[in-house]
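REVIEWER CHECKLIST
Item 1: Sequence provided? yes
Item 2: Single chain? yes
Item 3: Sequence as submitted:
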Amino acid sequence: MTARAVVVDGPGRHRLVTAPAPVPGPGEVRVTVHAAGICGSDRELYDGNRPAEYVRYPVVPGHEWSGTVDAVGAGVDDTLVGRRTVAEGFRNCQVCARCRVGETSLCGAGYEETGFTLPGAFADRLVVPARLLHPLNRDVDLTAAALLEPAAVSAAAVLTAAPRPGERAAVVGAGTLGLLAVQLLAASSPAELLVVDPRERPARQALAMGATRHCAPGQTPALHGRYDLVLETAGAPGTARESCLLARRGGRVVLTGIPGPPAHGIDPAALVTGALTVSGVFGAPSAAWTYAVQAFHAGVLRPAPLITHRLPLESFPEAVGLVGSGDPDVGKVLLLP
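Item 4: Structure as written out by the authors:
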């Protein structure tokens, strides 16, 4: 059996290869990939802008994916064969201090992640540890399930923010993470759910997904100090600072975006006098994955409307070009092996 894969040899250099399909080892499963999403970090990998400690060339990218188990290695329950699934990307060690308290995305054993340092899902088949699987119901939309990786990051942010019914909430940025966060926050029955984004299409989507109001970044000063919790998902140079300004005194701010330089600093005096709680989210621990999958099964998370482009594996150059192109009509781009 052979399988195709997109191999990125270095910045701006890739090739489509056909080789023997990977074989799962002890404790591993092989998955037939159904769909794989492309996100900004994949574009960074291809452009050579991802920090060196978070990539290892040559590599098969693809950390957002869904598929079906087609083979298992020694020691793995063979009833998993035929099961639809997604899986965590961080290869946590399970024994370090961070893993033992549940912070598996902060594993202290060294960074390893599917699609960045280890072969990912821009391929026909993928091998991952069985312990990282999150099996799905048999009737799920497997294409939509490819967005469960970013959904897990949004879920981690929402769990950190700990929304309570009747609070005022805001989401800064209406990309994939932001729109998924809107859906999860809407389920907490907020008194108000604001989305801040300059683009019309994502704003309309946010309102359809549970947001109660929208504004462009230039319209936010009138809303400063209003919100109990603010989730930042845009990663633009000024959005962390703006998120803190939107929060009320004693409010909570959760940052998920990673801005490039020059990022505008957050005023430490404002943090202290405002008694703000500011948290960062990097990736998603296992608990956030479980929350995202449960919300997906329950219909609380509806990722399918975020997908705007579906392309074959051979169209990787076109697909990666769409991501980060600035085209307001580009949402989530999927490769369908």
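Item 5: Key structural point noted by reviewer: The two ends are 15 Å apart (CA to CA).
Item 6: Recommendation: ____
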